[in-house]
Design goal:
Arc Repressor Mutant, subunit A; 3-stranded antiparallel beta sheet; transcription regulation; alpha+beta; single chain; elongated
């Protein structure tokens, strides 16, 4: 059985990968855009503006919520979601920092390939 070596990497790299995975599907990016524009949103409203089935939107919202980018509550048959801005900024700032760190190596490797 293969062991998971994820924990062997620095936390900053793990967070970078988590954020990238959360943004790796166009539907999740579109959902974040809808939530950002509306500040707060009922899941049904998201379905109205995206070309996705209710179950698909729900699955992507679940992933965004588990990843900490979205917070929400269920009231009866309605679900209300919004962006967790504090966590979004933490993750996006860390992502940008890692990207910039990687870009720094390009200056040292101008002659490569």
């Amino acid at each position: 059985m293969a062991s998971n070596k994820k924990s062997e990497f620095p936390e900053s790299i793990q967070n970078f990968a988590t954020f990238a995975k959360l943004l790796s599907h166009p539907a999740r990016i579109a959902i974040l855009e809808v939530l950002a524009k509306r500040q707060t949103c009922v899941c049904g409203e998201i379905v109205e503006v995206l070309p996705l089935a209710q179950s698909t939107v729900s699955q992507h919202l679940k992933e965004l919520k588990e990843g900490g980018l979205v917070k929400g509550s269920v009231e009866g048959t309605s679900s209300c979601y919004c962006i967790d801005w504090e966590h979004f900024y933490q993750m996006s700032d860390g992502f940008i920092k890692c990207i910039n760190s990687i870009k720094e190596y390009q200056k040292e490797n101008e002659g490569c390939c």
